[in-house]
Amino acid sequence: MTGAGTRYLYLARHGEASADGAGLTESGRRQALLLGERLRGVPLSVVHHGPLPRARETARLIGSRLDAVPLRESEPAGDYVPHVPARDELPPDAADAVLRFLAQVPEEERARGPELAREALAMFTGPIGGDSARHELVVTHNFLIGWLVRAALDAPAWRWVGVNQGNTALTVIRYAPGRPSSVLVHNDVRHLPPELRWTGFPPELHV
């Protein structure tokens, strides 16, 4: 491919959210600031974030540690179910559990989510125009990160299910011209001290 450059897509789940969803806990604010410090040396061109308060506040705090990187709110970076599988897409031993979980999602979200997921793929993935590399951060939610990781690996559409992210854990995907997409880093929390790691995971998954 000529006239195309490599995109480095940095993905981060928002910081730990308050119980009412109105913003971040004190731990969540610390997580966001520490991720911002980690990313100071990355030549980010933009920080995209979803419209919900927990993502917006996380992006603002990360941005406060960066050097004048613009923040852009984006509905495709939001919180939604990206794909609702039919039973025959799923492994027989997992189908009941997955469909029971997804049945709790409101019908409006089940209809709108796949459209936003397609927009997210178009907006955030693939090589870019021009010859220079571009580095972008998306501050988003668990489901979208799972969706983008499974897409990078050419996994079946339903396989966003079960790809879990810790709060402010960092995932990096590379989209290089003429090469398959590569998941370079997934769920990296080394910028966080032990007491702030793995929030957003059930206790049995804390490692």
Report on this structure.
There is one protein chain. Helix 1 crosses helix 2. This protein is α/β, with parallel strands linked by helices and 207 residues long. It is built from five helices and eight strands, in the order E-E-H-E-H-E-H-H-E-E-H-E-E. Helix 2 links the parallel strand 3 (44-49) and strand 4. It has helices at 26-38, 53-63, 95-102, 107-124, 142-152; strands at residues 4-5, 7-13, 44-49, 71-73, 128-129, 134-140, 170-175, 182-188.
* Number of E-type strands: 8
Q: Could you tell me the mean pLDDT?
A: 95
Q: Write down the Rg.
A: 17 Å
Largest sheet: 6 strands, mixed
As a percent range, the share of helical residues equals 25-40%
Count the DSSP helices: 5
Outline type: globular
Task: Tell me the strand order in the biggest sheet.
Answer: 4-3-6-2-7-8
Q: Which class do the helix and strand fractions yield? A: alpha/beta
Distance between the amino and carboxyl termini: 41 Å
Strand proportion, as a percent range, falls in 15-25%
